[in-house]
Amino acid sequence: MEYILLETFVIVCDAMNLTKASEILCRTQPTITNRIKQLENQLGFELMIRNKGKRNIMLTGKGEEFLPIARQFVEFYTRINHLQKDSASHLSVSAIDSIGTTIIADIGRSFCEEESASSLSIKTYQTREAYELVRKRELDIAFVSEKIELPNITCEAVFQQKYYVVKPCAQPKDVKEIDPAELDVSHEVYHSWGQDFDAWHKMIWPGQRQPRIRVDSCTLLARFLRDETSWSIVQSGNIAMISRFIPLQRYRLSCETPVRICYMITNAYPDRRSVHLINRFRTALYHYVKTSPDNDYLAIG
């Protein structure tokens, strides 16, 4: 009895609707219907009551009896895969640029060392595009900056980062404190860290003054921080990377500042061959966050 037929049956029962089930599995409704019929043929009895014109499904008596058995089979298949660790296993990960080149790259390297029989791809997608690809199961994991409530997507807050003011400095010292009034916005290299950050920035520096330069990546930001009059606000995890280009003095703002939360999203019904790799990557992530130097990443939960 094929796993895919059992999985389809369980998902249809959970969704209670063929249309929703087809969206979850990213398959056409006729394909879903055909899989259910194949399963019924193999079992020798009907699982569902077919009422034309009705979207919601109803189980037959035999279908209700078989559902918990099907769930157990799906669970057993998943456990077997954990033990086997299919040689063809592959994990597809995406992250927004600001963390993809730092924490996710570091975790990816250690992951490849530990999972030598598996392959890994890391790509850069913006938040909304990543949600769509995870929904289609074209990505196993995505790290995004925004929580969006969508069906069939599991979203968990995994870590947060503080914001610091940074300035070029030939001989950086320990973290200092600075008042926003001491900063001239016309000398700022501005990087938008999201809508919450933009709203906070406008509240702290109201008026018509505009940042000197606007960029959308940390690599560009590093290129424009060239003299001690220029400054920028950067999330903690990117400071070390930018410091490779130019030494930076880190400042803590004297006013209340927001934090930036990173979310990890997965499909609620992931490819069974990737489940153990998803769990391994999640474990590696939490270990990295908890042992990060200078508390650049603060674990949530």
Automatic annotation (TrEMBL):
Pfam families: HTH_1, LysR_substrate
Record-annotated HTH lysR-type domain positions: 1-60
InterPro entries the record matches: LysR_HTH_N, LysR_subst-bd, WH-like_DNA-bd_sf, WH_DNA-bd_sf
Acetylation recorded as keyword: no
Keywords associated with the record: DNA-binding, Transcription, Transcription regulation
GO function terms (MF aspect): DNA-binding transcription factor activity; transcription cis-regulatory region binding
Keyword Transcription regulation attached: yes
Organism superkingdom: Bacteria
Family named by the database record: Belongs to the LysR transcriptional regulatory family.
Name of protein: HTH lysR-type domain-containing protein
